[in-house]
């Protein structure tokens, strides 16, 4: 079935909304035949009678955990159609019910608030009247920390003991042979333990030594939702998709007085992802937005650092240079060691507006980039990054 044929099968007023937003499916359908096929498949699902059954709602929620949109990384007819058929369903839900499907709720609210969708939806009122969702009081998703090496070792040891207990001793083994095997095993265990202690004593911590920029975990993100902080006039609370299965991260940034909220919606950016989570006026922030500040100070302007055009949420952002490109960032920066603060003075935008880090000792320039290209500031030259 063709894309236009699938749109024609949609029930009114969903069909009217899809046609208005996507210009009859010709806008935002992706660049490949594969993506167009995926959009068509979603449109076919949108006309099914059981699209809002409990099983399908749970499936949709699971599908959207790592995604902002249903197909690729841009709005399509699929998103508009699914939003349209979900509208009557979400209109009847109470907070505990939509809190139970957080990824689907985030998707629904993002689409209904989209600048591309809202004007068309308003012309079809009351069919698509905005649904008020109390996301501010939604239960926070707990982000489990990676288990430490000690915890992993203990778990492995417990598993080994369980497996050992499950294997019966050979009944025909001679007592002398058993004793000999046990003695060898004990010696080997002692030697291994001693070696491990020596290695542990010699191995430095991952964040020891001089701070280097590759310790910082930079990734491409996209703002999928944004609101002003309820208790701070100068702060935004953003939901930023950085390609994680747990869904978008909550991020608080002090940009209200410098970047209008309309210029923040749906924007791609660079996020600092391994800072210790910080409580900002009652809202916990799980990352930081990397911005360029004019060399004349904040009054001269602040801009979001932009990844290259083909970037996707979750793409690794790294520093050019053999010593940095393939390095693994720290899981979390230790705030007591002030690693970011030590490196940050070297962050700058070049005359080309490209973001870079300049080594203070060698003066070598290391551009900040993804696999697709260098990250840039829209207009600022000689700006500091933070």
UniProtKB/TrEMBL annotation:
Domain GST C-terminal residue range list: 1-131
Annotated keywords: RNA-binding, tRNA-binding
SUPFAM superfamilies: GST C-terminal domain-like, Nucleic acid-binding proteins
Domain of life: Eukaryota
Comp. bias (Basic and acidic residues): 139-149, 188-198
GO MF entry, a single one: tRNA binding
Domain TRNA-binding: start-end pairs: 212-318
GO CC terms in record: methionyl glutamyl tRNA synthetase complex
Region Disordered: start-end pairs: 139-213
Sequence ranges of Low complexity compositional bias: 167-177
Family annotation (CDD domains): GST_C_AaRS_like, tRNA_bind_EMAP-II_like
Record's protein name: Nucleic acid-binding protein
